[in-house]
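Model it.
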Amino acid sequence: MRLKLPNGQRALVLLLTCLGALLPLHAWAASCKTQSQLTSAQRDALSNAGRSLLQNVQSGDIHSLQANTIPAVASDFARIADSVNTLKPLVQGATITIDSLYLLDASAEPAAAPRTDFYCGTPVVVLNFNNLPAGMYSLVILHATGVTQPQQIALILSATPEGRWMLAGFFSKPMMEVGHDGLWYWTLARKYAARKMNLDAWFYYRTAAFYLNPVDFMSSPNFEKLQHEQERVKPDTLPGATPLMINGHGSIFQVASIDTSAALGALDLDVYYNPDDAQAAQLHDPPSARKQVADLMMALLTLHPELREAFHGMWVHAQRGDATLFLLELPMDQIAPRTQLPATNLNSGVHSTGPENPLVR
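Modeled.
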């Protein structure tokens, strides 16, 4: 399955290369202190540095933000400026609170250590970095609330020899999707999983994971538990390295990806397919294009009727390379078959028959 992260994510990795699922064989351990382990002076210094930098974001003061960024990052600041310009209108007027603080001591790390691990607190939160230069760092996680789209912002700070904290990494993502936080999606994912509605559960677990983990290089026992639950329900009939082939209403559709979208303010499925030459020709005629895309929608829902319950509607993109030939969104209650014909997942040989009362579209 070719996955996209839910809408609204903005992340910049500055100086640090975050670790993925496949980790190098050798790692170096460093020390970490959590917020409760810090002295009041340390907490105040980190909190004040984080708030000051975020005030620059709220005001759009890119010059001051750049001046308080380490030289290696400040020398190439265009991407940060773009991110700040995107984030500024979302957090203007927001109430800023400190969610968590971590003081990271990598001052004794050997030069060019391939990976550095920080084990923080109890229960243990693990932070993983690749190619981290020796030094003192901190991770400051802030929440911007009281606005239409609350945001969570993670700042990586680097200490200068004089003890000044400067920006070394910046990440931001929304705290909610269509008015619900990650815990809400986790709860619903479990309910869908208990009812064997695995495709619904899979997407809801993914959404929960995105909103519950502020940065990709952080792991915790709770987050690992969520990931294990997600893997247990992962469907084996999703697009991946090869398209998902669905036979619907006499046409074979090559579905390249299935994801989620909240572009219209509700959680929708987001489907991309690659039309063949005959299908692409039909897309030049709007009525034929609408019928073709509606046939694909119905074929997918016939194979997976549980999707109607978990999602508001469905986006379908007819895609050729980078070009979108046709795009349609329909609410679930407007997606109905023209005739009672079976839909077939050609990858697995699964057949499913549609509802008994057809509706001609």
